């Protein structure tokens, strides 16, 4: 069983930066794609960024392009989300997720989920 544990959330001022981390354990070979989702109250869970373990190919949602960067450390089984230029619209619970599918992009594509980490942005 794959376990994902996020860390790095917190309170940040508008315009600031945060780095989220996701530690992957268990059957990590089951995952081909890793993603970061976020969900704000009353909103659907949306894919923010994704990365393939093998080639490091990345995907970004339109709302975060140029501000967020996803990266992985295969040796340490970790995935990161560097966020900059944060605004109130970025406040949400951020989830790390793993999929066995290549080019996974929807919630249903992802099998493994972390517990989430809260990001709060003060204006």
Q: How would you summarize the topology of this molecule?
A:
Elements: E1 3-7, E2 10-13, E3 18-25, E4 33-39, E5 46-52, E6 58-60, E7 68-73, E8 78-83, E9 92-99, E10 112-113, E11 117-122
Parallel strand pairs: 2-11
Antiparallel strand pairs: 1-3, 3-8, 4-5, 4-9, 5-6, 7-8, 9-10, 9-11
Question: Which properties best describe this structure?
Answer:
mainly beta, 0% helix, single chain
In short:
With 123 residues, the chain is mainly beta.
Described by strand count, sense and barrel closure, the largest sheet is: 7 strands, mixed
Helix residue percentage:
under 10%
Number of strands: 11
Structural class by secondary-structure content: mainly beta
Radius of gyration: 13 Å
Order of helices and strands: EEEEEEEEEEE
Q: What low-confidence regions span 5 or more consecutive residues with pLDDT below 50?
A: none
Q: What is the overall silhouette?
A: globular
- Look at the structure and give the mean pLDDT: 95
Count of runs of 4 or more consecutive helical residues: 0
Our estimate of the beta-strand percent is over 45%
How would you sum up this structure, described in words?
This protein is an all-beta fold and 123 residues long. The chain has strands spanning 3-7, 10-13, 18-25, 33-39, 46-52, 58-60, 68-73, 78-83, 92-99, 112-113, 117-122. Strands 2, 4, 5, 6, 9, 10 and 11 form a seven-stranded mixed beta sheet that branches. It has a four-stranded antiparallel beta sheet with strand order 1-3-8-7, with no helix packed on it. A hairpin with a 5-residue loop joins β5 (46-52) and β6 (58-60). The mean pLDDT is 95.
